[in-house]
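Quarterly update, task 2.4: 3-hydroxybutanoyl-coenzyme A-bound model.
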Amino acid sequence: ISTRAFATSSARAVINNVTVIGGGLMGSGIAQVAAQNGNHVTLLEVNPELLQKAQTNIATNLTRVAKKLYKDDPNAAQQFVEDAKKRIQGTTKAEESVGDADLVVEAIVENMEIKHKLFKTLDEAAPQKTLFASNTSSLSIGEIASVVKRKDKFGGLHFFNPVPVMKLLEVVRIPEQSEETYQAFMAWGKSIGKSCVTCKDTPGFIVNRLLVPYIAEAIRMLERGDASAKDIDTAMKLGAGYPMGPIELADYVGHDTTNSILQGWQKKFPGNPLFVPCESTKKLVQEKKLGVKSGEGYYKYNK
Ligand code: 3HC
């Protein structure tokens, strides 16, 4: 009996239809990885221009993946890209985006009010079966979930940039989350080729709780003039084996992102010296020098 019960519950939890909300850096990566692993994906953006931009980025990155997977077979590579692209449909209508979704992954701006508004709408529009997840880097999953009725079907699914390359998925639990939802999240993560780790709903979960203060400490070192950006980066690459140094990683992640993470944490946990935003980063954000994506941060890039 127990075997049959397990089979029934895991059959119910299978995820095929995934709706991704937001087609930015993270959302388009999530949509891509889901589609290239056989999911039918609906991608929601606020307007047709942003949708088009996301689809172009996805096509470019699918080609990079295909080239790697099918080095000696350009026809198979092209087929892989075409198949994955066909599995992604775009929309600008929130209510329609969740019609038959097994899972919704939200990857929009890090603003609690906007996330609440979105999830309220989706909770009304989505079928009962639909699981909800947020890809937030720094906000509380429990607080985001507070506006939905289906708290048992809610959790964090936190991906890393670049999503098609980074192998990790953090699966974040909240007390109301059912075991079935948790198991479905873990199984889905595995099915799209990620290694899953589990974490409680704490600031930054595992990776960002360690990575963001580390980046901020490196920037403070630069601000004090202890070493140059290039030498800090070289030191951590060659001395600690990191693929990128902390200053180039800060440029890569985007200063708007790290700055808003630190500002949010500082507000919530005043007095923690690890959570103090960096002055030079605040200045870069004001100047719209957000890092690689805007062509300049602590370093300059060719757009
Ligand atoms: N899509 C598909 N493939 C991509 C890609 C993308 N967006 N970006 C890079 N790749 C592939 C390249 O095609 C290349 O494949 P190949 O080895 O077969 O040629 C491979 O990845 C390596 O890329 P590059 O040769 O261009 O450059 P690197 O060897 O320097 O690797 C990197 C780039 C994978 C980004 C590596 O430097 C790295 O791992 N950096 C650290 C990234 C990191 O720490 N990310 C986490 C940030 S924190 C976060 O995301 C959390 C958020 O909440 C803030």
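Highlight for this quarter: The first helix runs from residue 2 to 12.
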